[in-house]
Design brief:
By secondary structure, this protein is mainly α. The protein has one domain: Farnesyl Diphosphate Synthase (Orthogonal Bundle). The protein is 71% helix and 1% strand. The protein is built from 15 helices and two strands. Strands 1-2 form a two-stranded antiparallel sheet. A hairpin with a 2-residue loop joins strand 1 and strand 2. Helix 7 (146-160) packs antiparallel against helix 10 and helix 10 packs antiparallel against helix 11 (212-239). The chain is globular. 48% of the residues are buried.
């Protein structure tokens, strides 16, 4: 039975993780300076545009918080920021005309509207090996054992690949103009959205040398928060404006997507999100991993305004 007792209220990234977010932004800027030398100018510019725009940085923040919860003592900002590189790539491709065909992302023109479809497509593809390079460089600077870095890379690639984010994107496209059951809908979003969020929690634990019991708890937390985050996205699409969320509101309805509000109603979807957050925090509590930081991030995932 879920028993987490915190109260979920509207939230921005201004809470206990604001300093982490600032460090992530600085790490992303360093990645652009260090790793984009030799990349053709329009592609490098598109990558910089995608990485350095305003964003929640939830995945890096989760990795960093999970690392500290598992008693890690170093600064893994760059390792966490590598997750944002993969996430940014997914947004670039998600917005392409052959996918969701959107014009607005993070309050600005989408990458393909700014740089053209061809450049945006290549920039997205380029960010995949860029993320791997960032992980390897961060692992070396942290002096992590080689097998740990390899495990982290494996988790990241699996989360981003056909069994995770890419596969989920395909399932999401195939589900347009169809009515899915809750089980089917959560299969889509466990992959499309949840896989990379769950990977963030596990990667933080791996970097800290967490036990198998702790990693299992972080996995359960990450899966729950990933689904709760998607429910919040679905709710914002029907309850907020484009100015508020920084992307085109009402897009799910226009594309006839299956969503949590369509299936459960607004109150039912909100209740499902709250239950998932509580279950995720309870999993961490059982492994003595629940920190105020991870509890706050869980609440933020469903209370955010964008």
């Amino acid at each position: 039975m879920a028993s987490s007792s915190f109260r979920i209220t509207n939230a921005e990234i201004t809470g206990p993780v604001v300093a982490d977010r600032r460090r992530v932004d600085q790490a992303l800027a360093r990645f652009c300076d260090e790793y984009l030398d030799g990349v053709p100018t329009p592609v490098a510019d598109a990558i910089g545009y995608s990485l350095l725009g305003e964003g929640k940085r939830l995945r890096p923040l989760l990795a960093m918080a999970a690392y500290r919860a598992a008693r890690g003592a170093a600064d893994i900002t760059e390792l966490g920021a590598a997750l944002e590189v993969v996430h940014a790539y997914s947004l670039v491709h998600d917005d392409l005309p052959c996918m969701d065909d959107d014009d607005l992302r993070r309050g600005r023109p989408t990458t393909h509207r700014k740089f053209g479809v061809a450049v945006a497509t290549v920039a997205g593809i380029t960010m995949v090996p860029l993320a791997a390079r960032c992980v390897w460089g961060a692992g070396e600077r942290l002096q992590l054992p080689r097998h740990v870095v390899q495990d982290i890379l494996r988790v990241l690639v699996q989360a981003a690949g056909a069994g995770g984010m890419i596969g989920g994107q395909l399932l999401d496209l195939e589900a347009e103009r169809k009515s899915l059951s809750l089980v089917e809908l959560e299969r889509v979003h466990n992959a499309k959205t949840g896989a990379l969020i769950a990977a963030a929690a596990r990667i933080g634990g791996l970097a800290a040398g967490a036990s198998d019991l702790q990693l299992a708890a972080l996995d359960r937390y990450g899966v729950a928060i990933g689904l709760a985050f998607q429910i919040a996205d679905d709710l914002l699409d029907v309850t907020a404006t484009s100015d508020q969320i920084g992307k085109t509101a009402g897009r799910d309805i226009a594309l006839e997507k299956s969503t949590y509000p369509a299936l459960l109603g607004i109150e039912g979807a909100s209740g499902r999100a709250r239950l998932l957050v509580a279950e995720g925090c309870d999993a961490l509590r059982g492994a003595d991993l629940l920190t105020p930081e991870l509890e706050w991030l869980a609440a933020y995932s469903v209370a955010r305004r964008s």
